[in-house]
Amino acid sequence: MRSRRWDGKSGCAVEVTLSVIGGVWKPIILFHLMTGKRRFMELTRRVPNATQSMLTSQLRELEADGVVIRHVYPEVPPKVEYELSEFGRTLVPVLLAMREWGETYRGHGSTEGDCQS
């Protein structure tokens, strides 16, 4: 799966990774999708500092990159769920490593302010 923003002409592998998951909110969104499907409003509650428009924008980019799948159900009111694609699930070890590094950096095992997936 190629990133919609990556031309493959230059740069290192870390650049490729960051072209897909870089930004303030994308890793957090992906972390919350690791355990399964989430509705948009559930994601807004789990990522309260991101505006709804920013969350929408980030989800659209992740969907365009093939990392997230958007499911729309023909219901009233509309029901939309997001989940990691098979390609997106390859990022789980990366996200867990980021969490582990953050726990170490934050204060050697403190769970204060911990992300709950």
What would you note in describing this structure?
- With 117 residues, the chain is mainly α.
- The protein has one domain (13-106): Arc Repressor Mutant, subunit A (Orthogonal Bundle), CATH 1.10.10.10.
- The chain is built from 6 helices and 3 strands, in the order H-H-E-H-H-E-E-H-H.
- It has helices at residues 13-21, 26-33, 40-46, 52-64, 86-89, 92-107; strands at 38-39, 68-73, 79-84.
- It has a 3-stranded antiparallel sheet.
- The longest helix is centred in the last third of the chain and has 16 residues, at 92-107.
- It is globular, with a radius of gyration of 15 Å.
- The mean pLDDT is 87.
End-to-end separation in angstroms reads 25 Å
Percent strand equals 5-15%
The CATH homologous superfamily is named: Winged helix-like DNA-binding domain superfamily/Winged helix DNA-binding domain
Structural class: mainly alpha
CATH class call: Mainly Alpha
Rounded to an integer, what's the Rg over CA atoms? 15 Å
- What order do the strands of the largest sheet run in, or round the barrel if closed? 1-3-2
The averaged pLDDT comes out at: 87
